[in-house]
Design brief:
Helix content: 40-55%
Strand order of the largest sheet: 2-8-7-6-5-3-4
CATH architecture of the largest domain: 3-Layer(aba) Sandwich
CATH superfamily of the largest domain: Type I PLP-dependent aspartate aminotransferase-like (Major domain)
Strand content: 5-15%
Shape: globular
Structural class: alpha/beta
Largest sheet: 7 strands, mixed
Radius of gyration: 21 Å
Number of strands: 11
């Protein structure tokens, strides 16, 4: 797709804030293309590019969202307190260890500002989720990116070697986005134990609910042990509430207070009530997890059959080598009305595909087979 100079400038400016915003700007005028090569008018594409959960919100969350409309005129203070109390009970921590935000993304931005201001050094994997590091740039942070290892996992020994007297924080997205890989809790515990006491370890567990490998589990116990660790969770993934915006952090009280002080917004009443309802809808969450993991296996089984290299996913997406520049695969899938993930340098041939519903997964696999046959 050819972009005008204005479109390119807009996308570049948005990239300073959000890779997703930049991608959306660049594709704003890109309509899905029909199989005959013509742009299809009014046809909704199959959206497999944002790691969204197509099965949520849960029935309980949907009901409370609808019934809350008459109360939209009310401030959410009491509802925030109620959710914090529920989360504290769920996580087995006092309420002063819990910080709620408008998605874990807001809390990542706040942590990036907190640790990056005045030239603070932050260490992160490459590639990884860029919300924290992108925002930290605005505060003047010095960023150190450490390439993932050959299995596309966080290279913790190399990240430890990168720590300097200037290091204020290390960011670990586990499972990682965009690779989908995960490292064991034991490895993270050992890593944290080796760090200077003043360094904050930020562990983003947004996708942890989709992990099914032994040893891949939460590290909230490090918070309980008094370590300078922040664990982040979100309602965007397993709970299917990406558009509602709710996330939270778990940290020791002094770190939690520092984080709360630099939040940039107040959570809304819809998110607070829907989050509480979703937490109680365990049957729906269990079924959603089962369906996504089953579809993930369908995708990886087919990639293996086709001889495509892929990362071992512990998330609701799969990162794999298309065998050619991603732009070619992206264009081909658009001809089938399917939107796939954006580019994540230096993995220029790789695609991050979100796991959709069973029919959406089937459509993607048909497209993948057709692309392979053509290439």
């Amino acid at each position: 797709m050819d972009l005008s100079r204005r479109e390119l400038l807009t996308a570049s400016a948005l990239a300073l804030v959000s890779p997703k915003a930049a991608w959306s700007a660049a594709h704003a005028d890109s309509r899905p293309i029909a199989a005959d090569g013509a742009a299809s008018a009014g046809t909704q594409p199959i959206v497999l590019c944002w790691n969204e959960n197509p099965y949520g919100p849960s029935p309980a969350a949907r009901a409370i969202l609808s019934s809350t409309i008459p109360n939209a005129c009310r401030y959410p203070d009491e509802e925030i307190e109620k959710l914090i109390a529920v989360l504290a009970q769920k996580e087995n921590f006092p309420v002063d260890h819990i910080v709620v935000g408008t998605g874990s993304g807001e809390l990542l931005c706040a942590l990036g500002f907190l640790h990056g201001k005045g030239g603070g050094e932050i260490i992160a994997a490459e590639p990884t989720y860029a919300e924290l590091t992108n925002y930290a740039k605005h505060a003047g942070a010095e960023l150190k990116f450490v390439p993932v290892d050959k299995q596309l996992n966080h290279d913790l020994p190399a990240m430890r070697a990168a720590v300097s007297p200037r290091t204020r924080a290390v960011y670990i997205c586990n499972p990682n986005n965009p690779t989908g890989t995960a490292i064991s809790a034991a490895a993270i515990r050992s890593f944290v134990g080796s760090l200077p006491d003043a360094v904050t370890t930020i562990v983003d567990e947004a996708y942890l609910d989709f992990a099914d490998t032994d040893g891949v589990q939460t590290v909230t116990d490090l918070v309980g042990a008094g370590k300078r660790v922040v664990v982040l969770r979100t309602f965007s993934k397993i709970h299917g509430m990406a558009g509602v915006r709710c996330g939270y952090a778990i940290a020791r009280p002094d770190v939690a207070a520092q984080l709360a002080a630099v939040r940039m917004s107040t959570a809304n009443i819809f998110a607070m009530r829907a989050a509480r309802a979703s937490l109680g809808d365990e049957a729906f969450l269990t079924d959603t997890r089962r369906r996504i993991i089953a579809s993930r296996k369908r995708i990886t089984d087919e990639l293996q059959r086709l001889g495509r290299t892929y990362a071992r996913s512990q998330t609701n997406f799969v990162f794999f080598d298309t065998g050619a520049p991603l732009a070619q695969f992206d264009h081909f899938m658009k001809t089938r009305n399917i939107l796939v993930g954006r580019l994540f340098p230096p993995y220029n041939n790789w695609c991050r595909i979100t796991i959709g519903t069973e029919p959406e997964t089937a459509a993607f696999l048909q497209g993948l087979q057709a692309y392979t046959a053509k290439s």
